[in-house]
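Review box. Two proteins, two foldings.
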Amino acid sequence: MDGVIAANTTLSRAGVEPQSLARSAWAARAGGLSGSPLRSLSTAMVRKIHARSGGRLPIIAAGGVMGALDAREKLEAGAALVQVYTGLVYQGPGLVKEILQGL
């Protein structure tokens, strides 16, 4: 294995505020979540992979990258690269410029 992508979706609802679950029928449905609710879980996974591999395995961090602080968090956890997807959907291509300027 030359590297790993971690982690672009979760089945957990732990990062979703209870009031959001109550307001949205979609939030309570089964299936994967992406975006902000995934941020801390994804970062923890990056940190764990980085520690277990001794930093020798390139990690592409995905999940919950909605701005420059999120991208920095992934890099500081041990990611070599950061993938942005859901953030682009909600914020558009200007997000890339914001992240680059923020780093």
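Next protein.
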Amino acid sequence: MLDGRVVRVWKGEGTPDGVARYCGEHFPQHVLPELRAVDGFLEARVLVRTTETTSELIVMTTWASLEAVKAFSGEDYDQAVVEPVVGKLLERFDEEVTDYTIAHDVR
């Protein structure tokens, strides 16, 4: 049974330094305050995988409902909300996000 919560998944990649700057500076100082300001935002996770030459990141945000997602991203909610500075930190990132409805949440 689906519970109505939505997980948004966005991916990017870049140099280890660029991804570290995204995670250590951009996300906590700019993205997280914007997320926390939206009613219905529940949590965020940033996952990183680093090799010798590149780093990948996945940002997963959890929302109370699709309506909460739309309050953050607008009606065209499949479009990623990405500030221009991210293009200086990452070499590639998704222009669109993938939204999933939570079916099971076991902790």
